[in-house]
Amino acid sequence: MIEGTPLRADAQRNRARILDAAEAVFAEFGPRGSTEEVARRAGVAIGTVFRHFPTKDDLLAAIMKRLLAQLVEDAEQRDLFDFLTHMVAQAAAKKTVVDLLAGSGVDIRLPDAVSHLEDAVDRLLQQARAAGDVAATVRLPEVMALLASVCQGALHGGWDEQLQTRTLEVIFAGLKRN
Amino acid sequence: MIEGTPLRADAQRNRARILDAAEAVFAEFGPRGSTEEVARRAGVAIGTVFRHFPTKDDLLAAIMKRLLAQLVEDAEQRDLFDFLTHMVAQAAAKKTVVDLLAGSGVDIRLPDAVSHLEDAVDRLLQQARAAGDVAATVRLPEVMALLASVCQGALHGGWDEQLQTRTLEVIFAGLKRN
DNA sequence: CCGGATAATGAGTCAACACTCGACTTGCGT
DNA sequence: ACGCAAGTCGAGTGTTGACTCATTATCCGG
How far apart, in whole angstroms, are the C-alpha atoms of residue A105 and residue A127? Predict the structure, then answer.
């Protein structure tokens, strides 16, 4: 990650294009999306993709990092319940994160990015607890577990809005009184 | 599925072996497990697997049917909370069901088997409601959604027992008072 | 505008995997 | 026993997809 010499202008442009294309492809197909498809959408030859990201996992890791950073930003602008609701609603669009958090066939280590997200959610949890919206006994791990679970459920189950609301209502009620 | 002539004795034996092997392989690797590995574990040539199950999806559908039937049986011997707890604990062992319920890359139609499971859970829900253990406003769809979600979460997240308990506690509390 | 370093290209390699098929073997009715 | 339909075998086929590398094109400091 430590660059000795800065990238050439065209290389920078292509790198950005590849990341955007990868995000779209993996959002659509999950980690199964092919590198060739990424190259096609980026308007770049396959070799170029591999020049920037030596393995497919490197590419996945890169967009994961991007998406997690965006989630952290999201978290900082909402309260706990809004954030959960928003994440579930966005689950389909973020298939990559959900699938990778689910560890489907790929193993990628992003301890930093994930712990940043945990920190952000922890802050929301403490706020909610202070406001009396969440029982004192509820801790971060189960909140993260519920977050991951419900996102996966929503993504793979293809829930409609009503089902989403009703399911979250149950969880919110559980968080309030444990 | 309607057999005109009964299977020969060796064919029956092999069919059973293949199903057992497939359950083990797909439990371990999910739907990505290879047909060759199934054949190897069944002690059978690859061609034999394809004689019994013309496509991989047919094989997956067959073991799905089996596993779902077993879940229905499970459900009939427990109450709602026990059943949820049990399913989550078993999630890892039943990777296939969880992944397929999640629709990961494979599309298989098992409307009957799934609706049987829904019927069984509906019965548990009505019992729990009658006993006052679940709020009257809670309906079947969100219970199924939570079931699927938490199983996926537990499977992919590798929860320890404590996290499992705490997560389910939140959900149970939510089901009681909505 | 030149030269060399940097990057892009895309046909090719290799491995994995679902599925086929013709040769062979075996259960079973007679 | 015999015959043959039913079943098994496993090398072969076709495809897909990650990754390579020799060649060609492009950037950029002097």
Answer: 36
Residues in chain A: 178
Which residue out of A138, A168, A170, A175 would a mutagenesis test of the B interface target, given it has the greatest number of B Cβ atoms within 10 Å?
A170
pLDDT of residue B108: 66
pLDDT in tens, A116-154: 999 999 999 999 999 999 999 999 999 999 998 998 888
Question: Is there a contact between A63 and A22 (Cβ–Cβ < 8 Å)?
Answer: yes
Q: What is the DSSP string of B142-170?
A: HHHHHHHHHHHHHHHHT--HHHHHHHHHH
Q: Give me Rg for the CA atoms of chain B.
A: 18
Query: What are the counts of helices (DSSP H) followed by strands (DSSP E) for chain B?
Result: 9, 0
Residue with the two structure tokens 């950005």: A16
For residues B47-58, average pLDDT: 97
Closest Cβ opposite residue A146 in set B32, B102, B167: B167
Mean pLDDT for chain A? 89
Give the end-to-end CA distance of chain B in Å, rounded to a whole number.
44
Segment B104-130, tens digit of pLDDT: 555 566 777 788 899 999 999 999 999
Chain A residues with at least one Cβ partner in B under 8 Å: 30, 32, 101-105, 138-139, 141-142, 145-146, 148-150, 152-154, 156-157, 159, 163, 166-167, 169-175, 177-178
| Of residues A32, A173, A175, nearest to B178 (C-beta) | A173
Helix/strand/coil for A178 = coil
Q: Are A90 and A16 in contact (CB under 8 A)?
A: no
